[in-house]
Amino acid sequence: MSRHCNELSFTVLESPWRKITWGDNGEALQYIKEFQPLNEEVKHIRVLLYGSVGAGKSSFITSINNVIQKRMTHQALASVKTADQSFTKKYETFTIQKEVRGTFYPFVFNDVMGLEEGVARGVRADDLKLALMGHVKEGYSFNPSSCLSADDLYYNSTPTINDRVHVLVCIDDANSPQMKPSVLQKMKEIREAASNLGIPQLAILTHIDEACGETERNIRNVYKSKHLKKKMGDLSSNLGIPMNCILPVKNYSKEIGVNRDVDTLILSALRLMIDFGDDYTAKL
To answer: What is the pTM of this model?
Structure first.
């Protein structure tokens, strides 16, 4: 049962505060599978995921792959939930394979080291700022003590439109305590850099089943949960991301098969990501 839900939070609203169609994911999945960027120079929409350690960045990538492949996969390695240090150490790009071997969907995800409290811990905000502009090469090992320099082998001095980030997504754990001030400050720095570049931004609230008993009992209660609505509101206030750009999801973790309702929330988030990215790249 949730650690942060009190008895009052277990109550649900009479009607959902956000409308969503449950279960029938055929149209959404078809949209994803047929998607092609409007800008012909863009090979793929690049989505950069960032957030605190253990927020579920790697698990979210794997969950997206599960939904599209319609089965359990092992796309991105993920650490146990109790880890207090980032499992991801390198700048990696994750692709999703189509039915035809050797072909991939035109959207990719970059996973990065998690943000941590204090100086010289976790990913540095300056490294993520460079990644936004496409200056970080694949395989770069994050160093909490120093950021990537222009004379490093992993520094891309001439990034193309396909190296740049097209959507910035904050991943936050709905079951975690309030963000530490130093982590929040790093997030604000990254967000400000993205805003200056015109990069669209979203936030994903993970572990919604663990954060509220009513959602754990029935995931369709997500938009009826007073507790989760408050968590999303707090995230919006802390980061300055509008509520309509915050999406709650449940990552696949304990399951051995896919679930339509879990898929519905993940597809809703994925569609918004690629649409935002497509709008951004169409203007480049």
So the answer is: 0.93
CB-CB contact of 115 with 68 (8 Å): no
pLDDT, tens digit (0-9, with 9 covering 90-100), for 209-251: 999 999 999 999 999 999 999 999 999 999 999 999 999 999 9
Judge whether 192 and 165 are in contact, CB under 8 Å. no
- DSSP assignment string, 109-162: EEE-PPB-SSTTSBS-HHHHHHHHTT-BPTTPBP-TTS---TTSTTB-SS--TT
Structure tokens at 207: 């572990």
Query: How far, in whole angstroms, is CA 68 from its chain's centroid?
Result: 16
Give 46's contacts (C-beta < 8 A, 6+ positions apart): 93, 107, 108, 110, 162, 163, 164, 165, 166, 167, 277
Token digits of residue 75: 């796309």
Q: What is the CATH number of domain 22-204+231-282?
A: 3.40.50.300
Q: Residue 220 corresponds to which amino acid? A: R
Residue 55, number of CB atoms within 10 A of its CB: 24
Question: How remote is the C-alpha of 192 from its chain's centroid?
Answer: 18
The Cα–Cα gap between 85 and 144 comes to: 12
Domain positions in the chain are: 22-204+231-282
